[in-house]
Design goal:
mainly alpha, 3 strands
Length: 151
């Protein structure tokens, strides 16, 4: 074989790889990676869920303020706050100066789908308007805390 053919033959041969380098991942290595992925996913999910609850809580605070403004607008038109919060979208029979509807019926539910609470006369002012927060019941702490127009 001459030198040219010898070089061509060498180029066409597949490179040899040492057999000690031809192994995949062990079961332990795969399990460690899966556990790490689970830990990271858990931390991300916890932060996302906390951010969502904070966002809904802040949205409820804004909604209570806006709805309080609509009740005050009603009071300016009619002379006093409504006996029932439903009077903001349905004209009461005894109200001649009613210029509503002041809100849509769906605006009377908080971000968690619970009806807003309303009391006239109020204990904290002319009227009380509040949401029960994430736990949908009286009291609570952090994002489950009640959100009232008196705060």
């Amino acid at each position: 074989m001459d030198a040219t053919n010898h070089r061509l033959a060498r180029l066409h041969r597949a490179p040899r790889i040492a057999s000690s380098r031809m192994h995949g991942f062990s079961l332990i290595e795969i399990l460690i990676v899966l556990v790490l992925i689970g830990v990271v996913a858990g931390m991300v999910a916890r932060n996302v869920a906390g951010g969502r609850q904070k966002g809904l809580y802040n949205a409820a605070k804004t909604q209570v303020q806006q709805l309080s403004g609509k009740i005050e607008e009603y009071a300016l038109d009619v002379g006093n706050p409504p006996e029932s919060i439903d009077a903001l979208f349905t004209q009461p029979g005894d109200s001649s100066n009613w210029n509503g509807p002041y809100v849509k019926e769906k605006d009377l539910k908080d971000p968690w789908g619970t009806p807003m609470q309303y009391r006239y006369p109020g204990e904290h002012g002319d009227f009380d308007l509040w949401s029960y927060g994430t736990d949908k019941k009286e009291g609570g702490e952090k994002y489950a805390k009640d959100i009232g127009n008196w705060e």
